[in-house]
Design a protein that fits this description.
Structural class: mainly beta
Strand content: 35-45%
Number of strands: 10
Number of domains: 1
Helix content: under 10%
Length: about 180
């Protein structure tokens, strides 16, 4: 492999998006990165957003000041271009999927149908020269979705996954990049 990620690395391109039900622990990347967990091919790339909130305590004269972090939010956004009814189920907590006689039926709605499931959302940017990048969160789609069927445009589902802590440390984002191995 070529030079691994350094402070001079330029990241170009999109990647693959995997979604797998979260069962309380984070499996190995290889267990997530399977054809079965591929959400579909994406359009418009993926976007990771981290937003902290701070509180600052300060005296009236501005001589003493202390700032602490009070809240964190992380979201992973992506447009899913190739999808099916099972993808909709992963994007909607009230979705139910049945398959019979060659027909997949997805029923969506009814708050009492909330499955309260969280998913591992795992984005992989492959780069054979500078090394791959992986971004992983646990959460669920909080943006709903719109299915627009137009005669001259593909139907892309814009999903926005809000992260929840994935471990006892409160981790919201797991970012991994391949780097040059040292001796």
């Amino acid at each position: 492999m070529g030079d691994k990620r350094t402070k001079k690395t330029i990241t170009l391109g999109s990647g693959l998006l995997y979604i797998k039900e979260y069962e309380g622990n984070m499996p190995a990347d290889t267990a997530i990165e399977t054809e079965q967990n591929l959400a579909g091919y994406i359009q418009g790339g993926a976007e990771l957003e981290y937003s902290p909130e701070f509180y600052t305590a300060e005296d009236d004269l501005g001589k003493v000041k202390k700032t602490i972090i009070t809240k964190e939010e992380a979201k992973l956004k992506s447009g899913i271009m190739t999808w099916n009814g099972n993808t909709l189920k992963q994007l909607c907590a009230t979705g139910r999927v049945t398959e019979a006689n060659g027909v997949r039926t997805v029923k969506i709605g009814g708050i009492s149908n909330n499955d309260n499931k969280n998913y591992i959302i795992h984005f992989v940017h492959e780069d054979k020269v500078d090394g791959d990048v992986r971004v992983t969160i646990v959460g669920k789609n909080t943006a709903g979705f719109t299915l627009a069927f137009a005669k001259d445009k593909e139907t892309v589902i814009d999903a926005e996954f809000a992260a929840i802590p994935s471990d006892a440390e409160g981790t919201l984002i797991i970012y991994k990049e391949e780097m040059e191995e040292t001796a």
